[in-house]
Amino acid sequence: MKYTYFNGIPNEEVLMGIQGLHQHVFEGAEIEVSELQEKSQLLCCVALEEGSVAGFKLGYELETGEFYSWLGGVHMDYRGQGIATHLMELQHKIVKEKGYETIRTIGRNHRRAMLILNIKYGFNVIETFTSKKGTHKIVLEKAL
């Protein structure tokens, strides 16, 4: 497994892999290039297996000093191998080197493996809310 990252939108091959994996992980939901282009200081961390995207973690700057870990996932064929942990560690290392002081993420109760991973790696629950779609969300934050 090769781990790498891109500041901004990655090359077309990796981008297509992220888009396909996003649909796989998030029940067919699409992520558009225009949505990525809107994100300030976009960071794309990826796990590649023989050139294919096995996992990804996307994030962007919320405001000066604060980074938002936005989306991520690992293909079901590669789960249980520590890929999400490696991607999280890579993302945190890069954003800390860039001078960010805190990192924030939003999770959902039904994605418990990700919530547990976040808590294990030092995130604290700072609030909860219900989205416009009626989904319960959990806001977590970590000092870097």
UniProtKB/TrEMBL annotation:
Pfam families from the UniProt entry: Acetyltransf_1 (PF00583)
Alphabetical list of CDD domains matching this protein: NAT_SF (cd04301)
Superkingdom classification of source: Bacteria
Domain N-acetyltransferase as annotated: residue spans: 1-144
Protein name: GNAT family N-acetyltransferase
